[in-house]
Write a structure and sequence with these properties.
The protein is an alpha/beta fold. Strand 3, helix 2 and strand 4 form a beta-alpha-beta unit. It has eleven helices and eleven strands. The two termini are 22 Å apart.
Length: 321
Protein backbone atom coordinates (compact mmCIF):
# COMPACT_ATOMS: atom_id res chain seq x y z
CA UNK A 1 0.00 0.00 0.00
CA UNK A 2 1.23 3.50 -0.82
CA UNK A 3 1.37 5.23 2.56
CA UNK A 4 2.20 8.89 3.23
CA UNK A 5 2.99 10.02 6.78
CA UNK A 6 2.48 13.72 7.46
CA UNK A 7 4.22 16.05 9.90
CA UNK A 8 6.95 13.82 11.32
CA UNK A 9 8.93 16.98 12.04
CA UNK A 10 12.06 15.32 13.42
CA UNK A 11 12.05 12.16 11.27
CA UNK A 12 11.52 10.16 14.43
CA UNK A 13 9.09 7.44 13.38
CA UNK A 14 11.44 5.42 11.18
CA UNK A 15 13.89 5.15 14.11
CA UNK A 16 11.33 3.47 16.38
CA UNK A 17 10.72 -0.30 16.72
CA UNK A 18 7.07 -0.01 15.64
CA UNK A 19 8.06 1.22 12.16
CA UNK A 20 8.88 -2.36 11.16
CA UNK A 21 5.12 -3.00 11.08
CA UNK A 22 5.09 -1.13 7.77
CA UNK A 23 7.56 -3.52 6.13
CA UNK A 24 6.36 -4.37 2.63
CA UNK A 25 4.51 -1.09 2.17
CA UNK A 26 5.61 1.87 0.03
CA UNK A 27 6.10 4.58 2.68
CA UNK A 28 6.81 8.29 2.18
CA UNK A 29 7.44 10.53 5.19
CA UNK A 30 6.97 14.30 5.13
CA UNK A 31 8.93 16.14 7.82
CA UNK A 32 7.76 19.69 7.08
CA UNK A 33 4.31 21.18 7.62
CA UNK A 34 1.96 22.69 5.09
CA UNK A 35 -1.81 23.13 4.98
CA UNK A 36 -1.85 24.42 1.41
CA UNK A 37 -4.22 22.08 -0.49
CA UNK A 38 -2.38 22.61 -3.78
CA UNK A 39 0.95 21.54 -2.29
CA UNK A 40 -0.64 18.60 -0.49
CA UNK A 41 -2.46 17.49 -3.64
CA UNK A 42 0.82 17.39 -5.53
CA UNK A 43 2.67 15.57 -2.76
CA UNK A 44 -0.04 13.07 -1.98
CA UNK A 45 -1.35 12.40 -5.49
CA UNK A 46 -0.57 8.67 -5.33
CA UNK A 47 -1.43 8.17 -1.64
CA UNK A 48 -3.70 5.26 -0.82
CA UNK A 49 -3.32 5.80 2.91
CA UNK A 50 -2.58 8.89 4.99
CA UNK A 51 -1.07 8.60 8.44
CA UNK A 52 -1.82 11.65 10.57
CA UNK A 53 0.48 12.86 13.31
CA UNK A 54 -2.15 13.79 15.86
CA UNK A 55 -3.95 17.02 14.85
CA UNK A 56 -1.12 18.72 12.97
CA UNK A 57 -2.85 18.72 9.55
CA UNK A 58 -6.61 19.28 9.16
CA UNK A 59 -8.38 16.93 6.76
CA UNK A 60 -10.91 19.04 4.91
CA UNK A 61 -13.25 18.73 1.96
CA UNK A 62 -10.77 20.76 -0.10
CA UNK A 63 -7.93 18.38 0.71
CA UNK A 64 -9.90 15.21 0.08
CA UNK A 65 -11.24 16.48 -3.26
CA UNK A 66 -7.73 16.36 -4.71
CA UNK A 67 -6.76 12.88 -3.49
CA UNK A 68 -8.56 10.45 -5.82
CA UNK A 69 -6.49 7.41 -4.82
CA UNK A 70 -6.99 7.78 -1.07
CA UNK A 71 -8.75 4.88 0.62
CA UNK A 72 -7.76 5.09 4.28
CA UNK A 73 -6.75 7.63 6.92
CA UNK A 74 -5.12 6.07 9.96
CA UNK A 75 -4.53 7.98 13.17
CA UNK A 76 -5.01 7.68 16.92
CA UNK A 77 -7.22 9.47 19.42
CA UNK A 78 -9.95 12.05 18.89
CA UNK A 79 -10.45 13.61 15.47
CA UNK A 80 -11.84 17.17 15.64
CA UNK A 81 -9.43 18.03 12.80
CA UNK A 82 -10.99 15.51 10.37
CA UNK A 83 -14.15 16.19 8.36
CA UNK A 84 -15.62 12.72 8.77
CA UNK A 85 -18.65 13.41 6.57
CA UNK A 86 -16.35 14.56 3.78
CA UNK A 87 -14.31 11.37 4.19
CA UNK A 88 -17.46 9.32 3.72
CA UNK A 89 -18.51 11.32 0.66
CA UNK A 90 -15.10 10.69 -0.91
CA UNK A 91 -15.22 6.99 0.06
CA UNK A 92 -12.29 7.29 2.47
CA UNK A 93 -12.33 5.29 5.68
CA UNK A 94 -11.10 6.88 8.89
CA UNK A 95 -9.54 4.50 11.42
CA UNK A 96 -8.72 5.86 14.86
CA UNK A 97 -8.21 3.98 18.10
CA UNK A 98 -9.92 6.16 20.72
CA UNK A 99 -10.43 3.49 23.35
CA UNK A 100 -6.90 2.29 24.00
CA UNK A 101 -6.03 0.94 27.42
CA UNK A 102 -3.67 2.74 29.76
CA UNK A 103 -2.90 6.44 29.77
CA UNK A 104 -0.39 8.84 28.27
CA UNK A 105 2.47 8.58 30.74
CA UNK A 106 4.29 11.32 28.84
CA UNK A 107 1.39 13.78 29.22
CA UNK A 108 1.01 13.02 32.92
CA UNK A 109 4.74 13.52 33.47
CA UNK A 110 4.75 16.84 31.62
CA UNK A 111 1.75 18.00 33.66
CA UNK A 112 3.77 17.47 36.81
CA UNK A 113 6.85 19.10 35.29
CA UNK A 114 4.86 22.23 34.44
CA UNK A 115 3.28 22.29 37.89
CA UNK A 116 6.71 22.19 39.53
CA UNK A 117 8.11 24.72 37.07
CA UNK A 118 5.24 27.09 37.79
CA UNK A 119 5.55 26.74 41.55
CA UNK A 120 9.30 27.28 41.53
CA UNK A 121 9.38 29.91 38.74
CA UNK A 122 11.84 27.77 36.79
CA UNK A 123 11.64 29.70 33.52
CA UNK A 124 11.94 33.13 35.12
CA UNK A 125 14.70 32.03 37.49
CA UNK A 126 16.64 30.54 34.58
CA UNK A 127 16.28 33.73 32.55
CA UNK A 128 17.39 35.79 35.54
CA UNK A 129 20.48 33.65 36.00
CA UNK A 130 21.40 33.85 32.32
CA UNK A 131 21.06 37.63 32.49
CA UNK A 132 23.45 37.80 35.46
CA UNK A 133 20.81 38.85 37.99
CA UNK A 134 20.83 35.79 40.32
CA UNK A 135 17.46 35.17 42.05
CA UNK A 136 14.36 36.99 40.79
CA UNK A 137 11.73 36.02 43.34
CA UNK A 138 10.40 33.50 45.85
CA UNK A 139 8.69 30.28 44.78
CA UNK A 140 6.26 27.89 46.46
CA UNK A 141 6.70 24.58 48.23
CA UNK A 142 4.00 22.29 46.89
CA UNK A 143 3.79 19.85 49.83
CA UNK A 144 0.65 20.55 51.82
CA UNK A 145 -1.01 22.53 49.06
CA UNK A 146 -4.17 21.59 47.12
CA UNK A 147 -4.23 20.35 43.54
CA UNK A 148 -7.58 20.60 41.79
CA UNK A 149 -7.93 18.07 38.97
CA UNK A 150 -10.68 18.83 36.46
CA UNK A 151 -11.67 15.63 34.65
CA UNK A 152 -11.75 12.20 36.28
CA UNK A 153 -9.89 10.21 33.64
CA UNK A 154 -6.77 8.12 33.25
CA UNK A 155 -4.25 10.93 32.93
CA UNK A 156 -5.78 12.84 35.82
CA UNK A 157 -5.57 9.73 38.00
CA UNK A 158 -1.88 9.32 37.13
CA UNK A 159 -1.21 12.95 38.08
CA UNK A 160 -3.05 12.32 41.37
CA UNK A 161 -0.68 9.45 42.15
CA UNK A 162 2.29 11.79 41.65
CA UNK A 163 0.61 14.28 43.98
CA UNK A 164 0.42 11.68 46.72
CA UNK A 165 4.18 11.13 46.49
CA UNK A 166 4.75 14.88 46.87
CA UNK A 167 2.38 15.29 49.82
CA UNK A 168 -0.14 17.32 47.82
CA UNK A 169 -3.86 17.14 48.60
CA UNK A 170 -6.05 16.30 45.58
CA UNK A 171 -9.59 17.57 45.00
CA UNK A 172 -11.63 16.64 41.91
CA UNK A 173 -14.20 18.31 39.68
CA UNK A 174 -15.72 17.45 36.32
CA UNK A 175 -18.92 16.21 34.79
CA UNK A 176 -21.69 14.86 36.99
CA UNK A 177 -20.77 11.33 35.91
CA UNK A 178 -17.09 11.93 36.54
CA UNK A 179 -17.74 13.31 40.01
CA UNK A 180 -19.94 10.31 40.80
CA UNK A 181 -17.18 7.90 39.73
CA UNK A 182 -14.65 9.79 41.83
CA UNK A 183 -16.87 9.61 44.89
CA UNK A 184 -17.49 5.90 44.29
CA UNK A 185 -13.71 5.41 44.22
CA UNK A 186 -13.34 7.16 47.57
CA UNK A 187 -11.85 10.35 46.15
CA UNK A 188 -12.42 13.89 47.44
CA UNK A 189 -14.76 15.95 45.28
CA UNK A 190 -15.31 19.65 45.87
CA UNK A 191 -18.71 20.65 47.25
CA UNK A 192 -19.20 23.05 44.34
CA UNK A 193 -17.54 24.31 41.19
CA UNK A 194 -16.88 27.66 42.86
CA UNK A 195 -15.23 25.96 45.84
CA UNK A 196 -13.05 23.88 43.51
CA UNK A 197 -11.58 26.91 41.76
CA UNK A 198 -11.42 29.13 44.84
CA UNK A 199 -9.63 26.65 47.12
CA UNK A 200 -7.15 25.02 44.73
CA UNK A 201 -3.54 26.17 44.71
CA UNK A 202 -3.12 24.46 41.35
CA UNK A 203 -5.84 23.58 38.84
CA UNK A 204 -4.92 21.05 36.13
CA UNK A 205 -7.21 20.25 33.20
CA UNK A 206 -7.61 16.67 31.95
CA UNK A 207 -10.51 16.59 29.50
CA UNK A 208 -10.97 15.69 25.87
CA UNK A 209 -11.94 18.60 23.66
CA UNK A 210 -15.44 18.03 22.30
CA UNK A 211 -18.30 20.27 21.28
CA UNK A 212 -19.60 19.96 24.85
CA UNK A 213 -16.29 20.70 26.58
CA UNK A 214 -15.13 23.58 24.36
CA UNK A 215 -14.89 26.72 26.49
CA UNK A 216 -15.95 24.81 29.61
CA UNK A 217 -13.47 26.78 31.72
CA UNK A 218 -14.83 30.32 31.81
CA UNK A 219 -13.47 33.72 32.74
CA UNK A 220 -15.64 33.51 35.85
CA UNK A 221 -13.98 30.22 36.86
CA UNK A 222 -10.50 31.67 36.47
CA UNK A 223 -11.49 34.83 38.31
CA UNK A 224 -12.33 32.77 41.40
CA UNK A 225 -8.81 31.35 41.65
CA UNK A 226 -6.34 32.61 44.25
CA UNK A 227 -3.85 35.29 43.22
CA UNK A 228 -1.14 32.80 44.25
CA UNK A 229 -2.61 29.92 42.24
CA UNK A 230 -1.46 28.31 38.97
CA UNK A 231 -3.49 26.94 36.04
CA UNK A 232 -1.93 23.91 34.30
CA UNK A 233 -3.13 22.79 30.87
CA UNK A 234 -1.61 19.90 28.94
CA UNK A 235 -4.96 18.88 27.41
CA UNK A 236 -6.35 21.36 24.87
CA UNK A 237 -6.42 25.16 24.76
CA UNK A 238 -10.02 25.09 23.53
CA UNK A 239 -11.19 23.90 26.94
CA UNK A 240 -10.69 27.48 28.14
CA UNK A 241 -12.86 30.28 26.75
CA UNK A 242 -10.90 32.06 24.04
CA UNK A 243 -8.68 34.80 25.45
CA UNK A 244 -9.83 34.18 29.02
CA UNK A 245 -6.53 32.82 30.35
CA UNK A 246 -4.45 35.82 29.25
CA UNK A 247 -7.06 38.20 30.63
CA UNK A 248 -7.09 36.30 33.93
CA UNK A 249 -3.30 36.34 34.22
CA UNK A 250 -3.24 40.06 33.51
CA UNK A 251 -5.84 40.53 36.24
CA UNK A 252 -3.77 38.40 38.65
CA UNK A 253 -6.23 35.55 39.23
CA UNK A 254 -4.44 33.20 38.77
CA UNK A 255 -0.99 34.77 38.62
CA UNK A 256 0.80 31.76 37.09
CA UNK A 257 0.21 29.13 34.43
CA UNK A 258 1.97 26.15 32.93
CA UNK A 259 0.66 25.50 29.43
CA UNK A 260 1.53 23.08 26.65
CA UNK A 261 -1.38 23.81 24.31
CA UNK A 262 -2.52 26.86 22.38
CA UNK A 263 -5.59 28.10 20.53
CA UNK A 264 -3.69 28.05 17.21
CA UNK A 265 -0.96 25.49 16.60
CA UNK A 266 1.78 25.44 15.60
CA UNK A 267 2.33 28.74 17.42
CA UNK A 268 5.23 30.53 15.74
CA UNK A 269 4.60 34.16 16.73
CA UNK A 270 7.73 35.24 18.64
CA UNK A 271 5.73 38.04 20.27
CA UNK A 272 2.75 36.00 21.46
CA UNK A 273 1.55 37.71 24.66
CA UNK A 274 0.57 34.53 26.45
CA UNK A 275 3.93 32.87 25.87
CA UNK A 276 5.75 36.00 27.03
CA UNK A 277 3.60 36.66 30.09
CA UNK A 278 5.94 36.75 33.11
CA UNK A 279 3.80 34.24 34.99
CA UNK A 280 3.71 31.65 32.22
CA UNK A 281 5.85 28.57 31.72
CA UNK A 282 5.07 27.38 28.20
CA UNK A 283 6.04 24.39 26.07
CA UNK A 284 5.12 23.73 22.40
CA UNK A 285 2.60 20.87 22.74
CA UNK A 286 5.17 18.26 23.75
CA UNK A 287 2.92 16.39 26.17
CA UNK A 288 2.92 13.26 24.00
CA UNK A 289 6.22 13.88 22.21
CA UNK A 290 8.54 11.24 23.61
CA UNK A 291 10.06 8.28 21.78
CA UNK A 292 8.24 5.85 24.08
CA UNK A 293 4.83 7.46 23.61
CA UNK A 294 5.16 7.78 19.84
CA UNK A 295 6.26 4.16 19.48
CA UNK A 296 3.19 3.00 21.38
CA UNK A 297 0.77 5.28 19.54
CA UNK A 298 2.03 4.57 16.03
CA UNK A 299 2.06 0.83 16.62
CA UNK A 300 -1.73 1.17 16.87
CA UNK A 301 -1.83 3.30 13.72
CA UNK A 302 0.20 0.79 11.70
CA UNK A 303 -1.91 -2.10 12.98
CA UNK A 304 -4.99 -0.33 11.63
CA UNK A 305 -3.36 -0.13 8.20
CA UNK A 306 -2.42 -3.79 8.16
CA UNK A 307 -5.89 -4.79 9.29
CA UNK A 308 -7.38 -2.78 6.42
CA UNK A 309 -5.05 -4.44 3.90
CA UNK A 310 -6.03 -7.85 5.31
CA UNK A 311 -9.69 -7.03 4.67
CA UNK A 312 -10.58 -6.83 8.37
CA UNK A 313 -10.45 -3.10 9.21
CA UNK A 314 -10.49 -2.07 12.87
CA UNK A 315 -11.33 1.09 14.84
CA UNK A 316 -13.41 2.53 12.01
CA UNK A 317 -15.04 5.90 12.65
CA UNK A 318 -17.18 5.86 9.50
CA UNK A 319 -18.69 3.32 7.14
CA UNK A 320 -19.00 3.35 3.37
CA UNK A 321 -22.21 2.27 1.68
Amino acid sequence: MRIHILDDWFNTLQTLPSFSRLDGHDVTIWSDHTEDPAILHERLADAECLVLFRERTPVTEALLAGLPNLKLISQRGVYPHVDVEACTRHKVLLASNTGSTGHSVAAAELTWALLLASARQITAQNQSLKAGHWQMGVGQTIAGRTLGLYGYGRIGKAVARYAEAFGVKVVWWGSEDGRARAIADGQTVANSRAEFFANSDFVSLHLRLTAMSRGIITAEDLGMMKPTASLINTSRAGLIAEGALLDALNAGRPSRAGIDVFEKEPLTDPDDPLVHHPGVTATPHIGYVTEDELDMQFADIYDQINAFVAGEPIHLVNKLS
